[in-house]
């Protein structure tokens, strides 16, 4: 992995702030959806499949 | 380019196809992780050729063991790195962005954790760019972008992502 770091010393542009806030909001919303998904039958099926794969290893 | 991914020991994970690409794994300590590469064309709304392959990386976990104790588990970073590798093997032209919440002042710890997850990628096949964004209240928001080095839009993506940082950047 090649990594480049951009350090900031001052305020970001309004465009950058809007971009970051949109991403943070989307992340929060998606994590809430993930928690809801974890209550579903589909999620339980995924757990079953995973455990079956683990035991077969 | 030679694949130098070297992680061998990781939890079994399950991939689920959909508009968003989801992964699941369970740890020995009873934690169940969900990882989502969420299709998010707005991230690069100005770059038409990049938009369809843009994803947000989102992770969340549940604990079925009823224990609040967090135990260090070295297999977790290995597994997340393996999932990243699997995702890029499937969708090599993707651009993945990770954003770190700073609302509880724990952003630096989260950033270190994310860096540990992805440092498992050895060699020069992948490129990560880290940037800081300061909001109007001077909260620091970390963001990272990961792409494969042979992405056909590499230069455009790096230039655009870099432009989102401050004019005072170094």
Approximate shape of chain A: elongated
What structural class should be given to the helix and strand makeup of chain A?
mainly alpha
SS class of chain B:
alpha+beta
Beta strands of chain A, count: 1
The separation of the N and C termini of chain A measures 30 Å
* Uncertain segments of chain A: none
Largest interface, chains and sizes: A-B, 39 and 53 residues
Helical segment tally of chain B? Answer: 3
Mean pLDDT of chain B equals 83
Oligomer: heterodimer
Give the key terms:
heterodimer; A: 57 residues; mainly alpha; 2 helices; 70% helix; elongated; B: 170 residues; alpha+beta; 7-stranded mixed sheet; 7 strands; 22% helix
Write structural notes for this entry:
The complex is a heterodimer of chains A (57) and B (170). The two termini of chain A are 30 Å apart. Chain A is elongated. Chain A contains 2 helices and 1 strand, in the order E-H-H. Chain A is mostly helical and 57 residues long. By secondary structure, chain B is an alpha+beta fold. Chain B is 22% helix and 31% strand. Chain B is built from 3 helices and 7 strands. Chain B has a 7-stranded mixed beta sheet with strand order 1-2-3-4-5-7-6, with helices on both faces. In chain B, strand 6 and strand 7 form a beta hairpin. In chain B, helix 1 crosses helix 2. Chain B starts with 12 loop residues before the first strand and ends in a 7-residue tail after the last helix. The mean pLDDT of chain B is 83. The chains are: A mainly alpha (57), B alpha+beta (170). Strand 1 of chain A pairs parallel with strand 6 of chain B.
Put the structure in a nutshell.
The complex is a heterodimer of chains A (57) and B (170). Chain A has 57 residues and is mainly alpha-helical.
